[in-house]
Amino acid sequence: xxxxxxxxxxxxxxxxxxxxxxxxxxxxxxxxxxxxxxxxxxxxxxxxxxxxxxxxxxxxxxxxxxxxxxxxxxxxxxxxxxxxxxxxxxxxxxxxxxxxxxxxxxxxxxxxxxxxxxxxxxxxxxxxxxxxxxxxxxxxxxxxxxxxxxxxxxxxxxxxxxxxxxxxxxxxxxxxxxxxxxxxxxxxxxxxxxxxxxxxxxxxxxxxxxxxxxxxxxxxxxxxxxxxxxxxxxxxxxxxxxxxxxxxxxxxxxxxxxxxxxxxxxxxxxxxx
Length: 273
Hints:
9 helices; two-stranded parallel sheet; alpha/beta; 8-stranded mixed sheet
């Protein structure tokens, strides 16, 4: 009995230690930035501009703009949790092909942006870029669309609370970090441990502007039901599109229906002349 008691103490202590490590280092399990710039839009035949925005004395975020027509809709992409904007050139290709202006930027700690990633920090970065586009670039707010990809959907939704877009696109986005973590680590009390939340499911029911939710039925990273749940929680006007591809497939490979749906959604969301 004494042996069992000692063993139980070790098991409980070990489990507690694991929980403590997860709590302390959870951001390193969520954010996977890279400073290696694999390519740029010029390699895809796109004319682009670099830009940088000072968020605070310690943080400057950087990005690219591909301007098709200043009077056309502008799509601001919030990328996922890994890599940097050099892995998102195909999004700029898509926006350009559809006749829209495209903007991508790196959160703090990603690419050439300085600082360390955190939930509050990523939201501050997004707000700073929106302010830059409106005030420095003269982008009409009525023509500014947010595109949130994966974790970026959580960032875009949080930014939307403070700086409302004309419309919001959520692609391959989870309902919340705790929901995802509970699926990946069902043996840990992650809902209690989670400091980083990106609780998108709590935000989308408050949005009155148009929403487009896109999710891959073959997504093995963020399951399809996350997209379905977000769509259910959204108020009208809203659109859902199921695509038959995985989480990391290029948007250029998602097919004609996907492109046509995005073009129609964006075009109908902005003021008609």
